[in-house]
Amino acid sequence: MEDKRTKQELLEQIEQQNLFIQKLEQQLHQVSQSSEKDLEHRLAITINNIPLAILNTDRHGYITAANPAFLKIFDKQSNELIDRQNIKFFEPFQKTDLQQRITQLIDHLTEFDIELPFPETKKDAFFRCRGLCIKSRISESLSFLIIIGDVSKRKLTEHELIKALQKAEESDKLKTAFLASMSHEIRTPMNHIIGFTEFMKDLSLPAYEREEYADIIFDSGQILLRLIDDIIDIAKIESGQMQLHISVFALNEVLFSVFKSFNDMRDRKGKGHINFLLSIPETEAALFMKTDAVRLQQIFYNLIDNAFKFTESGSISIGYTFEKDNVSFFIQDSGTGIPEEQQEHIFKRFRQLDYGLTKKYGGTGLGLAIVKGLIDLLEGQIQVLSEPEKGTRFTFQIPGLIAQSTTRQSKAIPVTPLTNWSNYTILIVEDERTNYNLLMIMLRPSKVKIIWAKNGKEAIDLMEENKAIIDLVLMDIRLPLINGYDATKAIKRINAAVPVIAQTAYAMDIEIQTAMESGCDGYITKPIERNLLIETIASHLPPK
Fold first, then answer.
1. CA distance 420 to 398
2. pLDDT tens per residue, range 372-382
3. Radius of gyration of the chain (CA)
4. Which end of the chain has less neighbouring CB within 10 Å, N or C?
5. Secondary structure element (H or E) that encloses residue 344, with its range
6. pLDDT value at position 37?
7. Separation of alpha carbons 147 and 135, rounded Å
8. Packed helices 456-465 and 484-494: angle between N→C axes, nearest 10 degrees
């Protein structure tokens, strides 16, 4: 009897324990569900405030949640997507690599992390996209999380860095090619000058050979001078030191001068067979412009020189058209032409179409860059129309006040003045004996008396001793002891009336201005042309 009672009590205890365990399991399940919901709630708040576009899908790909950032990026409402849209068929993703990755994620659980553009969202937008599988630790459920972040700024920065690197590498290659070309362009005429000067020492040479060699030396010197001028001009343009000198001038006279210069040198360039034409509007009145005549000539010189360089046969024509007070200049040739893809580069410095060891054409690639720089400085515009093997036409416009005179103006022909200066005395201030000898030889036919000072201090002393007889001073600028600027100031204090003409290798506008501010009355740059020297001196010598 006691055994039955003990057994019954034991069964009741077991039943009570089972009820307690069931009750505990229910409580644990409720706590677990509450914790999971609380976790989901917290997660939802976090996701909704993250700037990344985030969406969640069920096992089959239907969107179950999308945060505000996602809705904003793709301009959608939540009621359009939640439980309605399968992400595999989401329109903005169609025909993109992202659609394929999403399909693989849902069908084969293949996670991904890629970057790609979305043309349908906004221009130049670039996104990083990640796809993740989410498995619940509590249940067997499976869902997918897709995260999309805008990385456009980073991509833009990367792109700009790559472009900057490519530009730097290209610039380095261009400079290397330019220096190689520059070395070639300098050494070639120097080879002519040194080589033929050596031949000139041979006293047995016939006169005609001496004359031929002298012409070669002179032409090579002109090439070197042009090269130096180009380098100085491009430096002045890029540094903003190029100054304009605006004046009113007869346009036809400027073009006649340019045309005559190139017409005379065609044979020396081996281009005498090319027809060279000047085309100007027929009018009884002369046309005047108000701009910088020297820079206008320089533009024409560079464009015409370029035309002759690339034209082997046919013709070259220059001129202008005039309509409704607007002047449009042109240079047209029948040369090799310029491919369309190269036309945007021809005005950049150091650019040539044929850099390399097999170059057919010479030059440093600065000519057209100088043209563009000068036209920009004059607030003008230039256009190019070209086709390979059919020639090139450059047209440019420079704003300038236009006026018409009632009579046609004739071109004044400069005449070298008679130079019998036997009753004059000139003080030459020059530290280099070779330069002094050159000036002395240039002035020898004039029979002028010459006093030589080898430095600035000696020039001041000689001026003090001979102030009654010195009629003009030729002043070098870079001198020992006292420079030419200070020497000029001292000489002007001794005799303010004596003309001082600077003769120097300094050719920058700022240096010319400094010389004038120091008291110089004129300025001649080296290398000195004899006719220009004589004309400049004649214009400043006091009458006797």
1. 44
2. 999 999 999 99
3. 43
4. N
5. none
6. 58
7. 17
8. 10
Alpha-carbon dihedral sign for residues 228, 515, 494, 483: negative
* 352 pLDDT higher than 60: no
pTM beyond 0.85, yes or no:
no
Q: Could you report the per-residue pLDDT of 416-432, keeping only the tens digit for each?
A: 444 689 999 999 999 98
Distance CA 464, CA 485 (A): 17
Calpha distance 297→259 (Å, rounded):
10
The answer to whether the CB of 87 falls within 8 A of the CB of 131 is no
Query: pLDDT tier at 412 (50, 70, 90 boundaries)?
Result: very low
CA-angle at 490, arms to 486 and 495, nearest 5°? 145
Q: 391 CB contacts (<8 Å, ≥6 apart)?
A: 311, 314, 332, 333, 334, 335, 337
Instruction: Kindly report the length of the chain.
Output: 544
Q: What is the mean pLDDT of residues 139-143?
A: 73
148 bridge partner residues: 53, 129
Distance CA(28)–CA(131), nearest Å, equals: 33
Using DSSP's 3-state secondary structure scheme, residue 466 falls into coil
Q: How far, in Å, CA of 504 to CA of 451, rounded? A: 18
Whether the CB-CB separation of 133 and 142 falls below 8 Å is answered with yes
